[in-house]
Amino acid sequence: MKNSWTGMVATLLVGCTSGVDLSSQYAAYDAAFRQEHEQIIHTVPRDGFTLHAREFAPDDIETSDAPYILMHGFPDSLHLYDRLAPLLAKKRRVITFDFLGWGNSDKPEDHRYDVASLRRDLEAVIAYFGLRRVRLMVHDASGLPGIDYAIDNPDRTVELILLNTLYAPSEKRIMPPSIKRFSTLGLRRDLLIFGAKRSDSLWRDGHAGQVGAFFADSEIRDQYLPIFSHQALGIRPAFFGLTGVWTAEVQARARRVAQLRHLEVPTKIIFGTEDPYLNPALAHELGHLIPNVRLWLVESAGHYVQLDRPEEVARLVLDT
Could you write out the DSSP letters of every residue in 231-271? Predict the structure, then answer.
């Protein structure tokens, strides 16, 4: 809801420059969001670290039923689902969480950030909540651990929902410029990391430029870009680590495509049409790989389809 109190607070952040401390503004946004949408904050143990998680549930829901677990990509956080989670929670229990190194979760600098780490985060969340069965919603980079989990645990995965994501190598996929630069190993990448570590403003400006391109709705971009910008400085170790192995991780999934072709888990593919990177052509390619699938393209939505068009995404998830 663009005119909600949460949205108005977020809009106040728009004029902030890269050199401004956004902590107090972020705190105001988050407090408004929590006041507007009932939720429970959880601290999930994960191999000596902690993950930040939030749980939304209607009062009359059966808590033993398989909840939606909403997984973000990079370079963002669980706030990617702030407009969608409350809509889904009108009918079903919803859990969002920040991966290790992102958002409000712990950010160890010497950790190996790879897809195995993302998978371990997901498994830690599932174990913490004592879940026997889950509905997984993935976006962007979380497609790899989410789809891996569904392939390995089809009896525990009730449903798989793919939002502008990827899995294996594809000629249809176009890497966002910042991801491509930091995923291309060599001296140029080393120099980029050197500069980004030493200049907060340089890093935050680059982050904002790339993340801003992920929205189709400019009003929503102006509301939520500062939220992600507030968290941008702390994610550097995770971003540098994951981009450093990203090409190899995607290439490795080519060995699992045959298993994906036999995945019987009911799957929904919901992509924004205005995403030039993880685009409609890629959505159709994924649709041809997965046997038990339904596919929709959401008009006037970009890479952040769940922020641009949350009502339409919720309708497709819940009512189709």
Answer: TTGGGHHHHHHHHHHHHHHHHHGGGGHHHHTT--S-EEEEE
Rounded Cα distance, 101 and 108, in Å? 7
Q: What is the CATH number of domain 5-319?
A: 3.40.50.1820
Our CA angle for 248, 251, 253, nearest 5°, is 115
Rounded Cα gap, residues 258 and 44, in angstroms? 34
Q: Residue 11: is its pLDDT beyond 60?
A: no
Where exactly are the structural domains of the chain?
A: 5-319
> What are phi and psi for residue 39, nearest 5 degrees?
-160, 165
In the chain, helix, strand, coil percent, each to 5? 45, 15, 35
Q: Report whether 219 contacts 2 (CB < 8 A).
A: yes
- Distance separating alpha carbons of residues 72 and 304, to the nearest angstrom: 10
Tokens, residue 54:
């939030």
State the Cα–Cα distance between residues 272 and 289, nearest whole angstrom. Answer: 19
- Condensed to tens digits (0 to 9), the pLDDT of residues 63-95 reads 668 999 999 999 999 999 999 999 999 999 999
Could you identify the residue written with the tokens 């989670």? 85
